[in-house]
Amino acid sequence: MLAILIAGGFALLGTLIGTRFAIRVLVSRGYGQLIRDDGPTSHHTKRGTPTMGGLVIIISVLVAYALAKLATGYAPSASTILLLFLFCGLGAIGFLDDYIKISKQRSLGLRSKAKFIGQAVVGLAFAIAAIQWEDGSGRTVITHAISFTRDFDTFDLPTVVLIAFVLVMIAGTSNGVNLTDGLDGLATGSATMVFGAYVFINIWQNNQNCEFNPGPKCYEVRDPLDLAVVASALTGACFGFLWWNASPAKIFMGDTGSLSLGGAMAGFALMTRTELLLIVIGGLFVAITASVILQVAYFKISKGKRIFRMAPLQHHFELLGWEEITIVVRFWIISGLSVITALGIFYWEWVTGL
Asked: 19-26: long-range contacts at Cβ-Cβ below 8 A with a sequence spacing of 24 or more?
């Protein structure tokens, strides 16, 4: 528990203090956000706001986790090594995307195909290692089963299908957070709630772990307490970054932050056996991603008609005349309700055993 508190506290301080320094450096170098001409006109005032703030989040999480390990004297677990690899790997792809935007002075960075290839390479490496890395009891980091709050025992996925499922999860969550990161503080605040939920889930799974507390309701999850340390670091880092990212934002996380945070969410869902529960935990991200899919599909089917005035969903409400801060707060409420509902389902399953 001490490591959880240390990681969360130092990560919060890292982004709270480090982001202020990053803003000065990024402004001096002219690393400002470029705005799409076809977006809401209110966003044009944000042109030039420093971006790539996700670097501060990544560095703060890594440093805070390292300090927690040094303070408690425990070595990193296999699960956290792979989770941090996924987190940093997708962050590197996002950084490249952000850098191309800035250096070439255009609103589009990596081509969608190149970005997908990068996500696939990182995801593939993560999936293969997670399937093969066994502990002394023969447990792997992720299993071949599909899970809601724990593995379904009905069938196991073939390895090829499992890898494809992992890649879809990683691409879906990372792109979902990326699509949500369109208004000041929206993605950051929502991600804080999601990672806070995983702190609770991992602590609970550690207390009810089959390795230490065997029984009919125990969880066959590997390294849950160490995963809680990373979740705490992510929660603190996002919370501290929100101080500077809230409206009016002094800095944006960019794709560096959104892709890395989305990848971490996918990693937690896979390692805690809550892949399908993530749909509820990240309900806001799912809704915003679905709005883009529906908009594109309907546009093609109807030959030019639209369901929303603009996608992602938050921009639809902007064009309806809602103030940005109103949209952000109301969407935070939706995200909070999604997280509370998911935690309720998680606890209800344990109590009832259903």
From this structure: 19/53, 19/56, 19/240, 19/241, 19/243, 19/244, 19/250, 19/251, 20/244, 22/50, 22/53, 22/55, 22/56, 22/251, 23/50, 23/244, 23/250, 23/251, 26/50, 26/51, 26/52, 26/53, 26/251
Coil vs helix vs strand at 306: coil
pLDDT greater than 60 at residue 37: no
3-state secondary structure of 208: coil
Q: Compute the average pLDDT of residues 57-72.
A: 97
Render the burial of 53-77: b for 16+ CB within 10 Å, e for the rest.
bbbbbbbbbbbbbebbbeeeeeebb
Neighbour tally for 34: CB within 10 Å: 17
Q: What mean pLDDT is predicted for residues 212-216?
A: 81
Query: At 353, is the pLDDT very low, low, confident or very high (cuts 50, 70, 90)?
Result: low
For residues 124 and 46, the model is more confident at 124
Q: CB–CB of 194/204 below 8 Å?
A: no
Name the residue range of residue 202's domain. Answer: 79-223+251-352
Instruction: Report if residue 60 sits inside a domain.
Output: no
Specify if 203 maps to a domain: yes
Structure tokens at 24: 């000065």
pLDDT band, very low/low/confident/very high, at 44 (cuts 50, 70, 90): very low
Sign of the alpha-carbon dihedral angle for 283, 96, 237, 246:
negative
Q: What percentage of the chain carries pLDDT values higher than 90?
A: 74
Res 261: pLDDT: 98
Q: Name residue 233's amino acid.
A: A
* Cross-strand pairs, 209: 219
In a domain, 232, yes or no: no
Question: What average pLDDT does this structure show over 281-293?
Answer: 96
Q: Does a structural domain hold residue 237?
A: no
Q: Among 115, 53, 64, 51, which residue's Cα sits nearest to residue 89? A: 115
Q: Which position has the higher pLDDT, 49 or 32?
A: 49
DSSP, collapsed to helix, strand or coil, labels residue 252 as coil
Number of domains in the chain: 1
Task: Please give the structure tokens belonging to residue 186.
Answer: 């929206």
Q: In the 8-state DSSP scheme, what is residue 147?
A: B
Which DSSP string corresponds to 16-45? Answer: HHHHHHHHHHHHHHT-B----TTS-GGGGG
